[in-house]
Design goal:
The chain is α/β, with parallel strands linked by helices. It has one domain: Alpha-Beta Barrel (TIM Barrel). The chain contains 13 helices and 11 strands.
């Protein structure tokens, strides 16, 4: 949940809650929700996450904060921070890759707090524990380094460079993933990796390009998880990725998050369940573009019933995206109450 809707929700509930960001990093844009709020929402999942390394903390008033990858982030509005400085934007020389100042993801301090929290949650034994290492996502990391459009162009025009960059980024992500799993892997029920591969109407890149350049890297990350943990692998990707679901099943993905129910072929929920329900658990499907921000509580409850009937059983009910500023607290509560009712 982003900061503004969280403030309105806590005010509405009368809960005093300090605002802390996931990963201790404003660039995530997402609030680490107070336990009292999670309890009221009936959440049966708790997260553990690593710490984000930062080179230079920007202050308020639009200053840039530079993360350990050299990417500059600035507050962009209601959704928090976004990348505005891409340090490799104009680079296509593979020799530059080894000269670049890559972050050291082996430092144990990155994962100490995650280990403490995971052991606490394991001792409680009340929740499913999901691991959320920050941006174990090769395409997203490369996009922050170069800019999204530039990365996609380079994958076609300069494939040698793009492949070298993606492999290097994946290696850094793999070090991060191994460090995270060493700290918490024996406790996790789920762990999230991913990459945004879809748009509202189709794929961000062709299936051929995905299979050539990204699928092997995603498969390597899944293999690391399977080797170090019994956790189920959640793959995060936005948009219409129906055309890649066979590929995700093939590399060992267990959970697809989110099902973006307003995006292209993903909108046909019964078809999605028939075709892939025996291989994938679905997470999401509650419309954050129209129903949650623009509907009323009755609309929200009807939507919960609709997607539950289409995708259940074996379905993790959740919004299709982080809850944004336009969503009123009444609709958040209608959603959580209807979800709890649907699970009885």
């Amino acid at each position: 949940m982003f900061v503004q809707p969280y403030r309105r929700l806590t005010d509405y509930l009368g809960i005093a809650s300090a605002e802390q960001y996931l990963h201790g990093w404003p660039g995530s844009g997402i609030v680490a929700m107070d336990e009292a709020v999670l309890g009221r929402l009936g959440s049966d999942v708790r997260g553990v996450w690593d710490r984000v390394l930062v080179r230079d903390h920007g202050q308020s008033d639009g200053q840039v904060s530079v993360d350990a990858w050299g990417v500059g982030h600035r507050e962009t509005g209601l959704e928090g921070f976004g990348p505005v400085l891409h340090p490799l934007a104009d680079v296509t020389d593979p020799d530059v890759i080894e000269q670049y100042a890559w972050p050291d993801m082996t430092h144990p301090d990155l994962y100490t707090a995650a280990g403490v929290r995971a052991r606490y949650l394991a001792a409680e034994g009340q929740y499913a524990v999901v691991g959320a290492p920050w941006l174990v996502a090769p395409l997203e990391r490369a996009s922050q380094l170069q800019g999204r459009e530039q990365v996609l162009v380079n994958m076609l025009r300069y494939p040698e460079w793009a492949s070298a960059l993606l492999r290097k980024v994946t290696g850094v992500c793999m070090a991060q993933l191994k460090g995270f799993l060493a700290a918490v892997g024996d406790i996790l029920d789920l762990i999230m990796i991913g990459d945004d591969l879809g748009t509202q109407s189709g794929l961000l890149l062709s299936p051929r390009l995905y299979r050539a350049m990204l699928k092997p890297l995603h498969a390597d990350l899944v293999a690391v998880v399977k080797a170090q943990s019994a956790a189920r692998v959640v793959f995060h990707t936005d948009g219409d990725v129906f055309a890649l679901l066979d590929d995700l099943v093939e590399i060992g993905i267990d959970v697809l998050s989110p099902v973006e129910s307003t995006a292209g072929d993903m909108a046909d929920l019964p078809r999605l369940k028939r075709r892939y329900g025996h291989n994938l658990v679905f997470c999401g499907a509650l419309d954050t573009q129209h129903i949650l921000p623009l509907g009323n509580p009755d609309d929200v409850r009807r939507e919960v019933r609709r997607v539950s009937q289409a995708l259940g059983p074996g379905f993790m009910l959740a919004p299709t995206y982080t809850i944004m500023d336009a969503v009123p607290p009444q609709n958040v509560l209608a959603m959580s109450d209807a979800i709890m009712e649907s699970g009885r």
